[in-house]
Design a protein that fits this description.
The chain has 184 residues and is of the alpha+beta class. The chain has one domain: PAS domain (Beta-Lactamase, 2-Layer Sandwich), CATH 3.30.450. The protein is built from five helices and six strands, in the order ββαααββββαα. Strands 2-1-5-4-3-6 form a six-stranded antiparallel beta sheet, with helices on both faces.
Length: 184
């Protein structure tokens, strides 16, 4: 599942897989409405962590429980990389992904996050990308994590530019299509 935020951290795009997984319509997820799908025990920790990431404008990974459409919870890992653009490398927001890591939210673990590092897990077969652009964004996010591990830091500026472009295109697609065309 792919998402895009603005510079204040408000969601401007969620992939159709978000809607299918959570049962929450995309318009309700916009801004900070998506927080309603977090497990109540994880919400405070997740919000505090995301505020730190936003203040530092850094990449992050966050694990928490997310409510499914049927009301059950699953553990997901969320990760995002910041986008910067003109003027003067202004912070534009995040491009990120969510991946289910455990189908049950009842394991005795807690929500936690890591700043300055995002290595996305492999895509979960239950939530494949819904469009070619979302698949490209997923692969760009995975490539970003691999480059970080491999030490090929010279490639990061080009990859971050590609991530920013993918995020802009995804957000633009959310506002340019008729509402009935945006969702499954």
């Amino acid at each position: 599942m792919i998402f895009v935020t603005n510079s204040e951290g408000g969601v401007t795009y969620v992939s159709p897989e978000w809607c299918t997984f959570t049962g929450q319509p995309a318009p309700e997820a916009m801004g900070y409405g998506w927080l309603g799908s977090l497990h109540s025990d994880d919400r405070e920790a997740a919000i505090g962590f995301l505020r730190k990431a936003l203040a530092q404008q850094c990449e992050y990974s966050l694990r928490h429980r997310l409510r499914r459409a049927d009301g059950s919870y699953a553990w997901v890992v969320v990760g995002a990389v910041p986008s910067f653009g003109p003027p003067g490398r202004s912070f534009l927001g995040y491009l990120g992904s969510l991946t289910e890591i455990s189908p049950s939210g009842s394991e005795p673990i807690s929500a936690y996050g890591t700043l300055e590092r995002f290595v996305p897990p492999p895509m979960h077969p239950a939530t494949p990308p819904g469009s070619a652009l979302e698949l490209v964004a997923d692969h760009l996010l995975m490539a970003h994590g691999l480059i970080e591990q491999d030490g090929a830091k010279e490639m990061l500026p080009v990859l971050r530019q590609a991530l920013m472009t993918a995020g802009v295109l995804l957000a633009r697609s959310m506002t340019s299509r008729a509402p009935s065309d945006r969702f499954h």
